[in-house]
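Are you able to produce any protein sequence you like plus the matching backbone structure tokens because I've never seen that pairing?
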Amino acid sequence: MTISVLRTIILYGLLIVAMRLMGKRQLGELQPTELVVTLLLSDLAAVPMQENGLPLLNGVLPILVLVSLELLISGAMLKSPKIARLVSGSPLPIIQDGKVDEGVMRRLRISVDDLLESLRQQDIFDIRQVQYAIAETNGHISVFQYPKTGEPPKQMPVVVITDGALCAWGMQLCGLTEEKLGRILHKEKCRQEDVFLMTATKDGQHHLLTRAQVKGGGG
């Protein structure tokens, strides 16, 4: 009995450390790789807890290997947007300018009922209020609504450059070509690889944050 309790305490502490190492995002919306790791961790920890005859190391070692793989993949995704897109995919617009893209819904295997349910969960009961709806890589659907009567028109900012890499889906959404983007960067006297984050809207507005501003705390 005492051995079972001690084994459980050790594995419990190890899992807490593992989740802390993998980041706070594990506690919220999960990316595909994070969900897989979380499910596997629960299964791996359950076996040595229940089987006292199994050496504890046989249960601890796979957990350590799994956490190490997740940290390596996460690090690679941070350094390379291409790897991040390969592993987690890219956000996809389900609704653009109020028009539902049935092709994207089929690709994501989202039914009309799924879409409406997601909108209702965000207190939107009329699909005509939605200007943009974007399926995020974690499965959540983000919504940008049309302005209410009497409000000034507004455009949704979308990411066009992140960590020096172009975001094709964002550029397509705001109608920005590489040529136009090049002119903007030239005007800002900034190279693409020096951009930490850049957002743009369909009406030509943009906001740019360089790596130097992030490191120096500038705005």
User: Anything to note?
Assistant: Strands lie at 92-96, 99-100, 130-135, 141-145, 158-162, 165-166, 195-200, 206-210. Confidence is low (pLDDT under 50) at residues 24-28. The two ends are 59 Å apart (CA to CA). The longest strand covers residues 130-135.
